[in-house]
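Bumping my old thread because nobody answered last time. Still need a sequence for this structure:
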């Protein structure tokens, strides 16, 4: 989505109040006509990565999506005669404060160790993961300096803004010299200092794979999605979405028709998936995708979807495709009110 009216949010719908940080100058949800928020795109959480082995086959990858949750399921088979115990990981997207005027960025769980409420299960049993947390400024991990200054590791959140406001001038100058925070603007000394680091989090574990058996690994998280609202005056703007998620002329026409009703509006949610195979050195099957509609009259669009399922409660697709298959987008369009 590019240049949408009204604010975007990278968010979970059920976010607790106050856990997000609205950057300075954000367009409010009741912004006047003509005001546009900067373009914010959804962030894709990384897929399962597991060490390659000649005895390891990936038999199936299935991704189930709702507006509030993504579950990626991997069926792994150890075809050998010896048990395997392989390193596995899931990487969070890099999180950083928006230096420009922006809209709210909200996290499903305001913790640096697990900002997307990630959970992993193997054959239905919870898997304990280890969080590797780094805070990069100018390519250097500055976690120690950030924590020494008593700053939260999340680069955006109310606590981070409050903590930065309480840091003394000498410490701020040193943090700025390291590229950890933005420098003071001499022309606007009243403007707040912003975090200038990127939070990078990877969850890892060792995955046991019994000999001659299959193991099903499920990775669940809350998507960091982009949201926008369209009114009747924005009907033509919907055409900007055609290329992002293969919105067909039929689905585009249906969405525009929904805006023609009196007081009609559309809530558009965009979810990103990172389409990478779990194995580096051996082939993996293409992932299948299933998107459950939040309501019967919602419209779902993504590249590779099976058109025959467009009107069903669950829209399916056999492959992740599109202009950039690695950066796979899903649109969920719901009628709403202004």
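Sorry it took so long. Here it is:
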């Amino acid at each position: 989505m590019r240049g949408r009216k009204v604010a975007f949010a990278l968010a979970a719908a059920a976010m607790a109040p106050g856990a997000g940080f609205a950057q300075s100058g954000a367009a409010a949800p009741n912004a006047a006509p003509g005001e546009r928020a900067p373009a914010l795109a959804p962030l894709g959480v990384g897929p399962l990565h597991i060490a390659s082995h000649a005895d390891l086959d990936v038999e199936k990858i299935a991704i189930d999506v709702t507006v509030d949750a993504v579950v990626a399921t991997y069926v792994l088979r150890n075809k050998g005669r010896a048990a395997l115990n392989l390193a596995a990981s899931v990487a969070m997207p890099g999180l950083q404060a928006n230096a420009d005027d922006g809209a709210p960025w909200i996290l499903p769980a305001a913790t640096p160790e697990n900002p997307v409420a990630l959970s992993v299960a193997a054959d239905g049993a919870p898997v304990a993961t280890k969080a590797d947390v780094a805070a990069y400024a100018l390519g250097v991990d500055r976690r120690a300096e950030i924590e020494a200054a008593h700053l939260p590791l999340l680069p955006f959140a109310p606590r981070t803004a409050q903590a930065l406001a309480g840091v003394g001038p000498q410490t701020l100058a040193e943090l700025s010299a390291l590229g950890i925070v933005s420098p003071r603007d001499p022309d606007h000394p009243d403007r707040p200092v912003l975090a200038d680091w990127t939070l990078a989090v990877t969850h890892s574990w060792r995955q046991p794979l019994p000999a001659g058996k299959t193991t099903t690994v499920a990775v669940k998280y809350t998507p960091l999605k982009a949201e926008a609202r369209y009114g009747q005056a924005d009907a033509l703007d919907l055409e900007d979405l055609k290329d992002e998620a293969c919105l067909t002329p039929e689905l585009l026409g249906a969405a525009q028709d929904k805006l023609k009703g009196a007081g009609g509006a559309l809530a558009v949610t965009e979810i990103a998936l990172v389409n990478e195979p779990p194995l580096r050195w051996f082939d993996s099957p293409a992932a299948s995708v299933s998107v459950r509609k939040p309501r019967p009259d919602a419209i779902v669009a993504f590249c590779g979807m099976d058109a025959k399922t467009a009107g069903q409660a669950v829209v399916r697709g056999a492959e992740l495709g599109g202009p950039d298959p690695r950066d796979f987008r899903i649109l969920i369009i719901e009628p709403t009110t202004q």
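The first helix runs from residue 143 to 148. Let me know if any region looks off to you.
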